[in-house]
Write a structure and sequence with these properties.
6 strands; 6-stranded mixed sheet; Nuclear Transport Factor 2, Chain: A; alpha+beta; 153 residues
Length: 153
Amino acid sequence: MKPLVSAVLWVALIEAVGCSSHPDQAAELASLTAADREFARATAARGVEGWVANFAEDGVMLRAGAIVRGHAAIEELMAPAFSDSSYSLSWEPEHGEVSASADLGYTVGRYESRRVGPDGSSLLGAGRYVTIWRRDSAGHWKVVLDIGSPDEQ
């Protein structure tokens, strides 16, 4: 009888250890959503520097028929917009998912950009975005792909 109890305890222990190695998906999604919101705050506070800092070194942006890859190219693309002191960019994630291994995920939401036009009028841009994220070696979420889709005008 003792060997049977011992075997049952070993199986229970193995299952418990195995289950604990699976990420808590709700917690991982909350972490990803928090990273997206922090990305928005960093961008609002630090402009192009905050924007670029949230991308992986090999991160990609898809914009107006172009594929923009890497920190230097992303900064070059975004610097003119952020150099306009009237420009602002904000967004809010509405949905997201994280892979079972918790190393990849995506967020989807709405974005809004504002600036003052040459005639002094307020110019508004809005649309939807999809951002794909990957954990870096330190465990931080970094953007690997950002796609914005403007609303119909």
